[in-house]
Amino acid sequence: MCEEQCEGSPRRLRLRQHLRPARQRRPGDFRTRVSATSGVAAAAGPGDRLAALEAELASVRAELDDLNLLYQATIEHGEAVEDQLAEANLALQTTQKRLTEELTEAANYIFSILPEPRTASPVTEWLLLPSTELGGDSFGYHDIDADHMAFYLLDVCGHGVGAALLSVTAINVLRSAALPNTDFRDPGAVLSALNDAFPMERQHNMYFTIWYGVLTRSTGVLRYASGGHPPSVLRRADGSVLTLSTPGIAIGMMEAMSYRAAECTVGAGDRLHLVSDGTFEVETSPGQMLAFQDFVDRLARSETPGEVLDWVRGLNGPGPLPDDFSLLNIRF
Q1: Are 184 and 190 contacting, i.e. CB atoms less than 8 angstroms apart?
Q2: 101-129 pLDDT, tens per residue?
Q3: Which residues of 232-265 are buried (b: 16+ CB within 10 A; e: fewer)?
Q4: Which InterPro entries does the UniProt record give (predicted)?
């Protein structure tokens, strides 16, 4: 824009007219003209010498005017560029502010759909800490009917807006039981239906892992199934520890997959911990990852999710965790 304004300005046109003959001169031209004038002076009278000097002075003044014009044009061009940079910087700041506000709004929405901690049995306590503004972890629990209650935690590959959108969509599908012809009391059937509903080819090549369990209150039977997800950890009231998982790949990676459920019984005083891989995939030293069994041992001794987070952060060292930290504790 500045280039065009300067190109067409009367000042620039006049500058070109003045500079055109000046550019054809060489640095020694002035000395040559003085020598020539001196040579003429030797053969001419005082009047001729004065006329030659006046002509030379006029030429020098013209060159000075040209230089002043060039200086003014340079200043004007610099000011125009500075104005353009200021406008661009203001637009960038405005856009950045808007994006930050939208990311904050999206993060607030993700947390708003998470369930309130339960104080009645089974009691729940949870902690979600995304590694970036928007993560791909989410979880939930709800009554399917008077005798059955579902618990689930999922982890979408990657981070950012795309992962968060897929995570929220899958959670809302589970909460609203929006999978046609699916018995939500059967964890295997739920995972198979999710796999059919969310093929990665239709989700920008994103997939997710999940652990889904259903408690039958009247019998204490807990049925569960997992798709590519870390095992959940069951600490019984007597101190024994079980890890609960079933074979199966992540949801959406391969079509027409069939997932099967397993089951165990839970009783008063038992605790179930649903985790994402971000809770334990940290380095204990350069190049050395935390062993899952060490994590299980520490998790089984914990009382709160915050206690586990502090321990993992201590292992990880300063800075954010490499992945989303999600932990859902359920006390029966």
Answers
A1: yes
A2: 877 887 888 889 999 999 999 999 999 99
A3: bbbbbeeeeeeebbbebebbbbeeebebebbebe
A4: Bact_Sigma-Reg, PPM-type-like_dom_sf, PPM-type_phosphatase-like_dom
Gap between the Cα atoms of 88 and 137, Å rounded: 37
Backbone CA torsion sign across 76, 78, 84, 87: negative
- In sequence order, what are the residues at sequence separation of 6 or more whose Cβ sits closer than 8 angstroms to the Cβ of residue 267? 220, 236, 237, 332
Cβ atoms 309, 130 nearer than 8 A: no
**Per-residue DSSP letter, 247:** -
Joined together, the tokens standing for residue 172 give: 């809302």
Residue corresponding to tokens 């009691």 = 123
Residue in the structure block whose two tokens are 């620039």: 12
Q: How many CB atoms lie within 10 A of CB 214?
A: 23
Pairing between β-strand 288-289 and β-strand 221-227 as defined by DSSP bridges: unpaired
Evaluate whether 216 touches 148 at the Cβ level (below 8 Å). Answer: yes
pLDDT digits (tens, 9 = 90+) for 127-158: 999 987 788 999 999 999 999 999 999 999 98
Residue 185 is classified by DSSP as T
Helix 46-112, helix 10-23: angle, nearest 10: 130
The HSE-up count of residue 271 (CA atoms within 13 Å, CB side) is 22
The tens digit of pLDDT for each residue in 181-226 reads 999 999 999 999 999 999 999 999 999 999 999 999 999 999 999 9
What are the structure tokens assigned to 168, written together? 């929220």
In the chain, which residue ranges form alpha helices assigned H by DSSP?
2-8, 10-23, 29-43, 46-112, 161-175, 187-197, 292-301, 305-316
Structure tokens that stand for 84 in this block: 């353009």
| Class of the CATH domain delimited by 113-331 | alpha beta
Q: Rounded CA gap, 312 and 283, in Å? A: 9
Asked, as a colleague might, if the bond just before 286 is cis with ω within 30 of 0, I would say no
